[in-house]
Design brief:
Layout: H1 2-10, H2 21-32, H3 36-39, H4 41-45, H5 51-75, H6 85-93, H7 95-129, H8 153-171, H9 174-200, H10 210-213, H11 223-238, H12 254-283, H13 286-290, H14 298-333, H15 335-343, H16 362-378, H17 381-385, H18 388-409, H19 421-440, H20 442-453, H21 455-469
Helix pairs in contact: 2-9, 2-12, 2-14, 5-11, 5-12, 5-19, 6-7, 6-18, 7-8, 7-14, 7-15, 7-16, 7-18, 7-20, 8-9, 8-14, 8-16, 9-12, 9-14, 11-19, 15-16, 18-19, 19-20
């Protein structure tokens, strides 16, 4: 009985509010600036869009993201609880819809992002030091000719080690994770600024002449669909801007600092993204960018043109820094969603435990690490991360509509920038994006929706367990 009381007390230990505004801004930028901006120009070049339209896709995606920041500023006034978007959905629509969002984060969005980023980081390190491949003899063993758990074993093992290491660091205090994020994010921002500066001032005759630059890749889709396809790539690079809301319970003065951090962080990323892609298309033509293979990184090829092999090595280091920082930031924020779900008794109960010394949701961090490592082993994270934008924008539209509902009911009384025009634009954009994605990628969309629906039996299971635990005969 004594042990049970100790465990129960762990659900009542409060989290520490130790993160300030500068850390919040760098956390937003740190999550957003991962590997996407270095490689998404290649698939965007394949759409057949011109250079101005590709830049327009980045700008529109940035504007939509900034509109979202304005909207979430209004929602942030509703609560100072950890959980962010999950908590907004819960307050507006109730536990079920909020749970589906949290389940999507656990199964697809959060864990998939951690696994994918850790794998990319491990790949980057492998290009420099070449890991041993201990399970090479088993690489062709598969589950249904779909999952090859022993393939790329050296890279996978290092990715798992990284997830375990950063999880341990974040268990030992949210401030530790915040300080590490600040150092790494500042380093990668400086690195990107350096690459942009070198690219802008690069005037060698190696840059293709203006006549050749007018050549574009043949377009196979209507301009509208191609533009939306390009924006999907851009939105993946922008994804993560709202994740700071998940650590609301650990941010000082959250009603002020959370919105400011999102707006500032998105602004930094938008300027860097547009400038960097301008440099990419200044140095290489669209056909050259489109010809870059899946295993090559566009930014590395550009750096190679500008600075030779040294440029490729420096770019590899920059990508390593970026992905390392993004892994740490994701490990810091996503488990807070599961922690809040457990508090509402719609997740594994121990996920609500807070470490009595470090004041972190350590069990939630461990659950997140375990599932992320499973995804690394299975190698399915690329498939999952391709579905993140589609599923995320389903909920994005619902969250913004929730703001409109709360404003109409008078629950949110604070001024929201651009209300009601900006929320309506976001809702319309989300609807168009989701419909267009279903039309262009029907199988991927159906699979994403199917994975989301797997949460339904788990929801009722958690509710059943909760009801049994709170019943008169629970002891």
């Amino acid at each position: 009985m004594e042990n049970k009381n100790i465990q129960t007390d762990k659900t009542k230990i409060p989290l520490n509010r130790v993160l300030g505004l500068p850390t919040g801004i760098l956390l937003v930028a740190g999550i957003m600036i991962g590997s996407g901006v270095f490689k998404k120009i290649a698939p965007m070049a394949l759409t057949g869009l011109s250079e101005p339209l590709i830049l327009l896709a980045w700008i529109i995606a940035g504007i939509i993201t900034m509109f979202g920041a304005f909207t979430y500023a209004g929602l942030a006034s509703m609560t100072i609880q950890t959980g962010g978007v999950y908590e907004y959905l819960r307050l507006v629509y109730g536990n079920f819809l909020a749970f589906l969002f949290g389940w999507m984060i656990f199964v697809i969005g959060g864990s998939g992002a951690i696994a994918a980023l850790a794998f990319v980081f491990s790949q980057s390190v492998n290009t420099l030091v070449h890991f041993p491949i201990p399970l090479e003899a088993w690489k062709d063993i598969s589950i249904g000719q779909f999952i090859f758990p022993f393939a790329s074993s050296g890279v996978k093992l290092f990715a798992i080690f990284l997830i375990a290491l950063l999880t341990w660091l974040n268990i030992r205090g949210v401030k530790n994770g915040g300080v590490l994020n600040n150092i790494v994010t500042a380093a990668k921002i400086l690195g990107i600024i350096l690459l942009i500066s070198v690219g802008l001032f690069y005037t060698s005759g190696n840059i293709t002449d203006s006549n050749a630059r007018t050549e574009v890749v043949p377009m196979h889709l209507p301009v509208f669909s191609a533009l939306f396809g390009a924006m999907l790539s851009a939105l993946w690079a922008y994804d993560g801007w709202a994740n700071i809301t998940y650590v609301t319970g650990e941010i000082r003065n959250p009603t002020r600092n959370v919105p400011l951090a999102i707006i500032a962080g998105v602004g930094i990323a938008m300027i860097l993204y547009v400038s960097l892609n301008f440099v990419f298309m200044r140095v290489l033509t669209l056909p050259e960018l489109a010809a870059i293979g899946e295993n090559q990184i566009a930014a590395s090829e550009v750096a190679g043109v500008i600075m030779g092999r040294t440029g490729k090595v420096l770019l590899s280091i920059l990508i390593m820094i970026s992905t390392f920082g993004a892994v740490n930031a994701c490990i810091l924020v996503y488990p807070r969603v599961y922690y809040r779900m457990a508090q509402e008794q719609v997740f594994f109960r121990k996920a609500a435990y807070v470490h009595p010394v470090f004041r972190t949701p350590y069990k939630s961090l461990i659950y997140s690490a375990i599932w992320s490592c499973v995804l690394v082993i299975t190698g399915t994270f690329d498939l999952l991360t391709n579905m993140i934008i589609f599923t995320a924008y389903l909920f994005f539209g619902l969250v913004v509509w929730g703001l409109v509902r709360m404003k109409r009911k008078g629950i949110i009384t604070s001024k929201v920038v651009g209300y009601p025009v900006i929320p309506l634009i976001i809702i319309l954009f989300s609807l168009i994006l989701v419909v267009n994605t279903v039309m262009v990628e029907p199988k991927q969309s159906l699979l994403g929706f199917g994975l989301l629906m797997t949460g339904i039996p788990f929801y009722y299971y958690f509710r059943k367990i909760s009801n049994e635990r709170s019943g008169p005969n629970r002891d």
